[in-house]
Design brief:
The chain has about 100 residues and is an alpha+beta fold. Helices cover about 35% and strands about 25% of the residues. This is Antibiotic biosynthesis monooxygenase.
Length: about 100
């Protein structure tokens, strides 16, 4: 369990629909740009595995679990996640990680 004042890392595996990849990327990049303005967001990168171009990975770091919880309540995240539902092949896989 993450301590309240420890950094929180996230790895989100995203599988966009092949016929809606441009829309999915545009939505994710918009959400990423907004997220980077939050004081609790340290970094957020959208990456593509070299061996799997049909899957993307969002790598994120927040200052704390509380900062991420606040992030998840932002209107652009709530609304953006609703929009993404139609753009993805399946729900994203979210992994929360603590620094060792």
């Amino acid at each position: 369990m993450s301590e309240p004042d420890r950094p929180l890392f996230l790895v989100v595996t995203i599988k966009p629909r092949s016929d809606r990849m441009k829309e999915a990327e545009a939505q994710l990049q918009s959400m990423r740009r907004n997220s980077l303005t939050e004081p609790g967001c340290v970094f957020m990168h959208l990456a593509q595995p070299q061996d799997d171009p049909d899957t993307w990975v969002m790598v994120e770091m927040f200052r704390s679990r509380a900062a991420w919880d606040e992030h998840m309540q932002q209107r652009y995240i709530v609304e953006g996640n609703i929009i993404l539902q139609d753009l993805l092949r399946e729900p994203s896989d979210l992994r929360l990680l603590d620094e060792k």
